[in-house]
Amino acid sequence: MSLRQIYLDNNATTPLHPEVKKEMIAAMEMFGNPSSMHAFGREARANVEDARRRVAGFMGAEESEIVFTGSGSEANNTVLSLFACGSNQCIPGMSPTIITSKIEHPCVLETSQCLTHRGVKVKFLDVDRYGKVDLQQLDEMLSEGNVGLVSVMMANNEIGTLQDIAEISRIARRHGSFMHTDAVQAFGKVPVDVNELGVDFLTISGHKIYGPKGIGALYVRKGIPYCPFIRGGHQEKGRRAGTENTLGIMGLAMAVDMRAAEMEQEEVRLQGLKEMLRKGIEDTIDDSLFNGHPTDSLANTLNVSFPGAEGESILLYLDLAGIAVSTGSACASGSLDPSHVLLATGVDAERAHGSIRISLGRNNTVEDVEYVLDVLPGVINRIRNMSTAYVKGGVHAAAR
């Protein structure tokens, strides 16, 4: 009898939607370069522009405001790099100063740190115990002087907490700063309208919404100064060099179409599965501590700490049982350091090391959750019984 396989790491990546797979397979014989003027190229160009229209429409943007990129990380790097132009020609009159939060994706945090060597000043916002940014601190930082960009992610990839991007944008605009949000984890899970959010830049990625890997998109509000991060070609109207990934772009557009059709009903279903998981864990595992905002968070994301049990050990035991979860962000899986997100919320290093992230997806069922709740308590008990540090109901429980 084969081992049951349950995938609960959808914030790391998602399986292709069947309609996306069908779309991409059907288009595989279309090999023309979208920049070529002959019939092969025109066919590819028509499909790229049709996809741009569909992606733009889902977020309330104009077609001309969408730039296709190779990933969400590339799109984020593109925005941040606008404020590191030595001649300051990209954003005339703006100080090369960036404000971001302490719980951003590594592609924002590490790029921001790197840009300090190119004359960019970076300030980091604190978050509360639930991962919400300090809006008063943001206002105070902006009041200190000319800030070029505020960059705050819409939904955290590790704990699922949602930020009030519309309010953050209003504060940034009041001080004359541009606003960027990394919406990679939010897009396709909650409504994302660039005009309602008031952002100048917004980032998405295909493989987080049941689309292919290797494709992302960047929204750039019309009239915003811009220069390409990748140079050497006229593609994307001179905004991103490199032959367009036609198949990836078509796959992204179909994934967006499927999100438009399924998102609302799907998120209600996932919220129910998440609450079933939360209650089941609370009822069967002592000293289980949940991270992130209890209500203002993604419907699919549950981050939980088990004092006395190492997250990596939990992951490996669950994997042996056919259950795939994460200890945090997949982009930081090679690091032995505790989650920077959890540390920023005030969680101590020991609790952070004992945390796992369960991220549900469209393929998960009630039966999957029931199986996890059958397996997980035994896993935690086994690891805790081997631990000399865990004391039931002890100091760890006080962290509630």
Keywords for this entry:
single chain, Aspartate Aminotransferase, domain 1, alpha/beta, 13 helices, 12% strand, disordered C terminus, globular, Aspartate Aminotransferase, domain 2, seven-stranded mixed β-sheet, 400 residues
Strand order of the largest sheet: 2-8-7-6-5-3-4
CATH topology of the largest domain: Aspartate Aminotransferase, domain 2
CATH hierarchy class name of the largest domain: Alpha Beta
The share of residues in extended strands comes to 5-15%
Provide the gyration radius in Å.
Answer: 22 Å
Poorly predicted tracts of residues: 395-400
By secondary-structure content and strand pairing, the structural class works out as alpha/beta
Count of alpha and pi helical runs: 13
- β-strand number: 12
Integer tally of domains: 2
Mind summarizing the main beta sheet?
Answer: 7 strands, mixed
Average pLDDT level: 92
Q: Give the overall silhouette.
A: globular
Q: Give the % helix.
A: 25-40%
- Terminal CA distance reads 41 Å
What order do the SSEs take from the amino end to the carboxyl end, as H and E?
EHHEHEHEHEHEHEEHHEEHEHHEH
* Architecture (CATH level 2) name of the largest domain: 3-Layer(aba) Sandwich
